[in-house]
Each structure stands twice: as C-alpha cells, then as structure tokens.
Amino acid sequence: MYMFKYVLKRLLLLLLTFFIIITVSFVLVKLLPDTPIKQLGKDPTLIMNIKVARHQYYINEAGEYIRTPIIEQYIYYLGYAFKGDFGVSELLYPGQDVWKVFSEKVPFTVAVNLYSILFSIPLGIGLGIVAAVKKNTWIDHLISTGVMIFVSVPSFIYGFLVQYLLCFKLHWFEPVMNASNGAFSWTGFSTMIPAVLCLAFGSIAGFARYTRAELTEVLTGDYMLLARTKGLTRGQATMRHALRNAMVPIFPMILSEFVGIMSGSLIIEGMFTIPGVGSLFVNSIRSTPNPDYNFFILLSAFYILIGLVAGIVADISYGFIDPRIRMGAK
Question: What is the mean pLDDT of residues 297-306?
C-alpha cells in the first residue's frame, strides 16, 4: 500500500514536472526572433503554409502574415500532440512528419547507448571489485588513478583520440558508421564500435569508482567478520554477502548512467555520423534561418521524459532490491 501511494505520487509529480519543463522550452524557443526565410534552397511559401496550418500565423484582411500569440500557439500544439500529431518539419525535412522521422532515427540512438552500457557494466563493476578487494595495493592505486582520469575527460575528447589512433593510424575501424543495414545489424554494430568505446570509457570509470566505494564499506561490516568466522573464505564471503549488499545502490546507478550516456551521445553521434536523434536534436537547433521548432519540441520532450522516468525507476528499484526499504512508509 505504501509503495502504491509512493509510485502514484511520483507519477503525478513526473507529469507536473514534465508539463512545466516542456512549457518553458516551448515558450523560450518561440521567443526567438522569427527571421525572414531567404536561405537558398528553402521554400518560403511552403514553410509559411505550414505555419498557418499549425496556427502559428494567420492571414489578416490585407493578406499579411501575422504571428499568433505564443499562448495560443501552445494550446493548439497541445491539442495536436494529444492526437499524436507533432507537426511537420519546416526546415530540416520540409513537409515531412516529424514523428515519422523521429521513429526512424530512435533505433540508432538506442543501439549505440545500449551497446555502450552493456559493455560498461561488467568491466566497470569488475574493476571496482578488484580495487576494493585489493584495497591500498598498487592494483587499487592503478585502477583509482585510471578512474579519475577517465571520469574527468568528456566523451568527445575520447572521440578525437579514437578517431585518430584506432581509425586513422591503426585502421582498425571505419571513422563513420555504415547505417545501410539498420542499427542492430552486424554492419551497424561493427562500424559503431568507435562511438561505443567513446561513450563507454566514462561509464566504466563511474561504475568502477562507485563499486569500489560501496564494496569497501560493506567489506568492513560486522556481518562479514561473522561470515569469515563461520568458515567462509574471503572470496566466498565477498561473493555471497558483500556483493549483494553493495549492489543495492549500484543497480539504480546503472539506470542514471544510461541517461547520462544518452545526453553525451548528442555530440558523439555527430562525430561518427550516426543517424540518431542526438544529431537530429543538434541540427534542429542549428538550422537556419530559424530552429526547426517541431523537431526541437519533440526531441526536448523525449530527453526530458527519459530523465524523469529513469529517476522514478531508480527510486522504485530500491524497494524491490532491498526488502528493508519501504518507499512511502513513515
């Protein structure tokens, strides 16, 4: 009962938070100056017809285009969105449905982040276990030093290093992804490896640091001494008791780390020409003469919702992993 109330409360707060953030994002992007469309290759008539059809403009008696107030635009936008209509692209893919383009690119973003997190979890947790068991030895110092270095360096720096060393010097991988056979094909995976490595380095370091800190604390517990006195070896006590307790805070971290990678892939996707939503998000902001509003709002909602849902899942998972925790209980 306590868990149900807690989950319901968190869901309501999620919806409220999501509504506030997306409202602020919509208003701020609409406050940007609406530059006249004069760029070569753009069709002003098509774009203005789209804006009129979406109630962003109206035509007065003199035949002039007059901008609709932002609040009215937002009300119209919500009405369309609840029907599953998120508009059409004005600049990046003129006249194309933004949801269709978005759904075609999501698998590539999911793939590169999924591969990187699956690669990071066992390696990072394994290094953390070794560092905790070998505490204050040269192995621990070596792992801890490497962790601090890899945590401090942003993913796009790894991107330059991987492209230079592994792609151009050693010729182990192609510098760009081959997306011809889809995101989850062997061709897609093999050409996505450089991007996966760039995203994984920071996650491996984060998992290793967190695992070492939690496991080191658990290994000093009184129940570990009791387990040893019962005849268990250090390895048996660590695997059967210490790791289970240490994983309680580590598992929710995996979910939050996944969200962190999703935000980092915005740049990595562009560096390795991965046709995912990250590069689409950046291009929607950079498009000239104006941002591609419908793409920007949809992708903003996508990243905001991922972050909020991951936070709730991480919190709720504590109650299922550790029976001592009862969410919502006083």
Answer: 84
